[in-house]
Specification:
- The chain has 22 helices and 24 strands.
- The strands form 4 sheets. It has a 14-stranded mixed β-sheet with strand order 1-17-18-19-20-16-15-14-13-12-10-11-2-3.
- The longest helix has 28 residues.
- The protein has about 700 residues and is an alpha/beta fold.
- The protein is globular.
Length: about 700
């Protein structure tokens, strides 16, 4: 069965690329804000001028038509300038994750671009020295300055600054020449515009043409009815499709793209998202289900009116992963009357478009409290069909249907319903593969469950992991505070709840309670990162290979040899750093032997502290005392073990009446040792944070 959505709505312009749409607003509203990042502003004229000048540099570097440029820039303002510049230069872009350089380097190797476009501040983290040529962005005050204002704009009026920007644009166009100007505004039909990275664990990019990028924008514009007055915030990573293709929704409609002013690694998270929306008057917010869950969790529990921090929003688009109807309904209650909440389903191959749903489109009210996941109907120009149970999407503007790897069905009312993912199917011995989505949806009907994942785990409840044995495990999180305070169910209560809803053989045999579902950088559920169920009497183990179970020390053999190795290093360095400090010449027996044994203990203590410092933090993290407290305790214990070796050597070389040196040693070592001991005592007496613990109930 196939869904189609065709639209005859005119665009109101003869433009044929997103560059034409942006250029239209740069000409007609040059003084309007295009980018906003806290106190930093770039008008359309200035953004166009900066991008044009950078495009000239890219052409001068020898960029061929359609050449791929990897853009690795952690500053979002500079990133948008770079994307426009690449398109203006006739190239195509691939946005790297510069906020997490280890991922960005893998992405860079996966696409093999003509050049790497980056800032000096990001180059060291991304450029391995054996990659493509590097083109550096100029450090412009209005892009990278801490104050966020141009030096010339501080001296001129706003009108003078905009005139200066327009002059820069003209100069850049003259320098490029008529041939190059035609090249930037008239790419060949089907020319490559970008390569977008999927959310797969290993970097994989998909091509995006100029035609598709423009068609995706037109589809979004028709559904969301964007206007030049809108202020857009995209709360995802820069390399995620929602941003890498979604920046057009603001800049091709004459609106303002709001960017986080804080460090990219911390900005736009669930914790500061409401403040950013309120502070910048955001009207259109694009977020993943993880960010949406944060909004629900932060809303006042006794709230009757819309969440004040989100009062400016007229549209919230949730995209990137499944969103249940009850979650969509709860998000509606956060917004002012008349505001829209869209559940958007799409792929990188379709530039983030596909299908969309908002609750007013339902013919009947939601009758299930947990709600299914409805994907709705296609965007204008798109099509969705279900072939052998799998959803296929046709990109806006046409093309071959793309298999999504997701299961679905078209309901009688014409709406597409999500039914799980092929990759999530659970294979159990002696029976058919299980699609866990139906079981998960039924579990969500329990008032004590917020989110849930059901998966297969190898091994038996006794933890022996007998070959060929597998059991179903349900991972459950608490509901949002506004949803109630019921306790999460144990396995028996859960099986009672599921009776009559799912077959007996499909019921989970264990329940693991976790605070939140692990998600990847794109905000999607990451089942590979779920903790393994605990053995009876033990805590849960991490799913990562080779990691120790919580409460277990690293492998004892490794600890011993690591301690000996670091201790031997201390032996070698003692006479180098403190010559004569361990000289026992003239010390009578048995005192010389006792002092010698003391030195051995100091060396081994230093070795044990070094092992703990470099390898012990993951084990301490799993004790659930919270990240800041665990970090402090980790450093305190390491210091307590390592400090005796340098302290004792320095004391032995200090004269007893050298009071300045004695005082310095006391305050450099003794006082920190006391403070470290206090931290360790507090850590030992504190209780783990219950929501962070993983608990298990099993039945056989």
């Amino acid at each position: 069965m196939t869904q189609r959505s065709d639209s005859g709505r005119p665009t109101g312009t003869t433009a044929d690329t997103v560059l034409h749409r942006f250029a239209h607003w740069a000409r007609t509203t040059p003084g309007a804000d295009a980018l906003v990042a806290g106190p930093r502003r770039l008008t359309y004229a200035r953004l166009d001028a900066r991008a044009t000048l950078l495009a000239r540099d890219l052409r001068a570097s020898g960029l061929p038509p359609g050449g791929l440029v990897a853009v690795g820039v952690s500053d979002r303002t500079s990133l948008v300038v770079a994307l426009l510049a690449v398109l203006k230069a006739g190239g195509a872009y691939a946005v790297l994750d510069a906020e997490h350089p280890h991922i960005g380097r893998r992405q860079l190797a996966a696409v093999e671009p003509f050049a790497l476009l980056t800032r000096p501040a990001d180059r060291a983290a991304l450029d391995t020295g054996d990659g493509p040529p590097v083109v550096l962005l100029d450090t412009e005050p209005d892009i990278e300055g801490d104050t966020g204002t141009d030096t010339d704009a501080q001296a001129d009026t706003d009108a003078q600054a905009d005139a200066h920007a327009a002059a820069e644009t003209d100069a850049a166009g003259d320098a490029a020449g008529d041939v190059e100007a035609a090249r930037e505004l008239a790419p060949a039909p089907g020319a490559l515009a970008a390569r977008l990275f999927t959310a797969a664990a290993e970097p994989r990019s998909v091509p995006l043409t100029h035609d598709l990028l423009l068609a995706a924008y037109d589809a979004w514009a028709e559904v969301t009815r964007v206007t030049p007055e809108d202020r857009h915030l995209i709360a995802t990573g820069a390399d995620v499709t929602a941003f890498a293709a979604g920046w057009t929704r603001a800049l091709c409609s004459g609106g303002t793209l709001v960017l986080p002013a804080a460090a990219p690694r911390r900005a736009g998270t669930g914790d500061d998202l409401p403040a950013l929306v309120a502070g910048e008057g955001v009207t259109v917010l694009y977020a993943g289900p993880d960010r949406a869950a944060h909004l629900l969790a932060r809303a006042p529990t006794a709230r009757r009116d819309p969440y004040p921090a989100l009062r400016s929003l007229r549209l919230l688009a949730v995209t990137g992963d499944r969103l249940h109807l009850d979650e969509q309904a709860a998000l509606h209650t956060l917004l002012r009357p008349g505001a829209r909440v869209l559940n958007v389903y799409g792929l990188a191959e379709t530039a983030g478009t596909g299908t969309w749903l908002e609750l007013p489109r339902l013919r009947d009210p939601v009758d299930l409290p947990e709600g299914p996941t409805l994907l709705g109907t296609p965007f204008p120009g798109c099509a969705a069909e279900v072939v052998a149970g799998e959803i296929h999407l046709t990109p806006p503007g046409g093309g071959r249907p793309i298999p999504t790897g997701d299961l679905g069905r078209v309901r009688e009312d014409g709406l597409l319903e999500f039914a799980g993912r092929i990759r999530d199917r659970v294979t159990l011995p002696g029976r058919r593969p299980l699609d866990p989505y139906a079981v998960e949806t039924a579990i969500r009907g329990h008032e004590g469950v917020g989110a849930v994942v059901v998966t297969g785990v190898d091994g038996t409840p006794d933890g022996r992991g007998a070959r060929g044995t597998r059991r179903l495990v349900a991972y459950v999180t608490p509901p949002a505070p506004s949803s109630g305070t019921a306790a999460r169910p144990d396995v028996e209560e859960l099986r009672t709840h599921l009776a009559g809803k799912v077959p007996e053989e499909d019921m989970p045999q264990a329940v693991v309670r976790i605070r939140s579902l692990p998600r990847n950088r794109a905000g999607q559920e990451d089942r590979s990162a779920l903790p393994l169920p605990a053995r009876p009497g033990g805590a849960a183990r991490t799913a990562k290979a080779g990691a120790a179970a919580p409460g277990e020390a690293p492998a004892s053999c490794g600890v011993v040899w690591g301690t000996v190795a670091f201790g031997f290093v201390a032996v070698l360095l003692t006479d180098v750093l403190w010559p004569g400090s361990t000289d026992l010449t003239g010390v009578p027996s048995p005192w010389s032997a006792l002092f010698g044994l003391l030195y051995v203990f100091e060396w081994l203590s230093f070795g044990a502290g070094a092992v703990l410092l470099f390898f012990g933090r993951p084990t301490m993290r799993r004790r659930g005392r919270g990240r800041p407290f665990t970090t402090l305790a980790h450093l305190a214990v390491a210091y307590l073990l390592m400090a005796w070796w340098p302290q004792d050597n320095l004391y032995r070389l200090a004269a007893k009446n050298d009071w300045p040196r004695q005082a310095a040693l006391v305050y450099a070592f003794n006082i920190p040792l006391m403070l470290a001991a206090g931290v360790v005592a507090l850590y030992a007496l504190s209780k783990p944070k219950a929501p962070q613990d993983t608990e298990e109930d099993t039945t056989i």
